[in-house]
Amino acid sequence: MKTLKTMKTKVLFGLMLLALVFSCSKDDEPAPTPEPENQKPTISFVSPTANSGDLWNIVDVEVNAADSDGSVAKVEFYANGVKVTESTVSPYSFNWNSKDVEDGSVELKAIVTDDEGATATASISVDVKNVLLDYNIFDGYLSAGADIMNFTYITSPAPEKEILYFAEIPEGAFAQTVQRPAEFDGETFDVHFVGYYMNNDGNDGKITSYHGITPGDFSPVPSTQANYGNELGDANVTFTNVPDHDYAMIFSGGNTNPIAENTQRTLKIYDQFDLGYVYLKVGDAGYYMAAPFGVGDHELPLNAMNTSMDSHTFADNGSLSTASLLVQGHTGPSRYSPAVSIYRENIALNGNPFETKFHVPKAEDQVFDHYFTNARVQENGRTYVHEAYQEILSSMTKLDATFEANDKKLSQLDITATSMDDFDWLGVTFQVSASDTFTFVWQSYSGDDTISFPPIPTEVVTATNEVFNSSDIVFKDANVTMLFEDRDNYNGYDDFKDIRFGRKTEDTELKTRLYVFGQL
User: Fold this and answer.
1) What pLDDT, on the 0 to 100 scale, is given for residue 412?
2) d(CA 22, CA 100)
3) d(Cα 456, Cα 161) in Å, to the nearest integer?
4) What does the buried/exposed string (b/e) look like for 300-324 if buried means 16 or more CB atoms within 10 Å of the residue's CB?
5) Which residue has the higher pLDDT, 324 or 19?
6) Contact partners, residue 270, CB within 8 Å, separation at least 6
7) b/e for 194-207, b at 16 or more Cβ within 10 A?
8) Does domain 42-128 have CATH number 2.40.30.10?
9) Given a cut of 70, is residue 434 above it in pLDDT?
10) Helix (H) and strand (E) counts for the chain?
11) How would you write 440-500 as a 3-class SS string?
12) 3-state SS assignment for residue 269
């Protein structure tokens, strides 16, 4: 028979065992699996890229967008922080009108959002250039007057030669920003200026064409002129005690014949320049006099001229038709400083070589800062010119060139122009007789020989009473001159264009200029 104490013990043990069982069962149950963290989507630009160059008109924008653990809900596109559009369907792309922003650097941004709201961003910087040409022409750049009409227009390159823009230029300054037409997608274009001059004897015109122009400014700057200051009046000089001589250069005059006793010459006097220079040559000897003059009458005895001169010789051994030489002395360091002519000669040679001797003041006399030389010869139907802006030439360098052209209408012009030497640009000048009463000049500038006569806008044809009608102008009736030019301060045609269009300052002092031209 069990005792009460024994029964209590068994009950207590059972309860403890039961608690232990329940406790062990709870601890062995596995913990619930946590939900995976949402992964951000990814996005990157396919086009354009940072290396796409200038963009214009409608631009194809496309991105790659993906979500590894879900789906892409949308992609939003922004330009300079302004939302442009959004896309919810792959491929994620759209046609962006770049004309909605100003030209310059533009930030394109794309934001992708996935199905759980996570986002990612991609951005690039691109250059937008929708301005084709920004005209800013100063008053005086073009000829003006009641009987003069001026026009400008832009064409696509050959062979299309579509007119992209046209305007009549009023007298005075002209400012106009030309946007790129939607239909034009080219990187370069041609710019033309037309001048139409009406007079009693007939009509004259001029077309100037610049080929291969890139978008940007047309802001030409006025040409730098020698600063002589204000004109004060004339010095009237009578020469006395004139020695015997063979050659006379008097006050930069064009007549170099010997002068007689009591010869009179006039010298313009300016507040910044009053130098009178006289040079006489007697055989192999030279004499000069350099003195300031004031306004009024003067008597200048020439029996005490300075003989302190350096002798120079210029020679060319070619079979020359003609030759000319000009030497000038500049009073300041710039090529635009006031100058006087020291020596000038023009001679017909009939196939013979050319040689001449002349003199300049010695350096220690400090009459001039530096010298300029222009040498020009005609040989085998070509005219060669060598200009030196810092030295006196003893011989000349000749650019080698060949010019050919087919006998076609100007609208079908086919020109071949080649040179064995480097040159900065090709310039072509046409003296065209369109009728008995109308002639015009076409000047064309190009980095190579890929030039062609531009179409004439109907507005020009109408304004000029149809005398400017290229379909009636025959090339064989034109007097055509072609010119290669090389300057040491230009780095090719692109440099020439940038300086001519005011996009670059001509900050390099010119030392040498070579050119060759000939008629076809």
Assistant:
1) 61
2) 74
3) 10
4) bebeebeeebeebebebebebbebe
5) 324
6) 228, 229, 230, 231, 232
7) bbbbbeeeebbbbb
8) no
9) no
10) 3, 31
11) EEEEEEECCCCCCCCCCCHHHHHHCCCCCCHHHCEHHHEEEEEEEEEECCCCHHHHHHHHH
12) strand
Residue 480 has pLDDT above 60, yes or no: yes
E strand or H helix at 137, and its extent? Answer: strand 131-137
Evaluate whether 47 touches 62 at the Cβ level (below 8 Å). Answer: yes
Using an 8 Å Cβ cutoff, are 213 and 164 in contact?
no
- Is residue 95 scored above 60 in pLDDT? yes
Cis (ω within 30 of 0) for the bond into 91?
yes
- Residue 48 CA, chain-centre distance (Å), reads 29
| Domain spans in the chain, listed from the N-terminal domain onward | 42-128, 231-388
What are the tens digits of pLDDT across the range 333-372? 988 899 999 999 999 999 999 999 999 999 999 999 999 9
Q: Is 504:439 a contact under the CB 8 Å cutoff?
A: no
Cβ within 8 Å of residue 394, ≥6 positions away? 312, 313, 314, 315
CB 115 within 8 A of CB 40: no
Is the pLDDT assigned to residue 196 strictly greater than 90? no
Residue 247's nearest CA partner among 258, 236, 255, 237 is: 258
Distance CA 127, CA 51 (A): 10
Across the range 128-138, mean pLDDT stands at 95
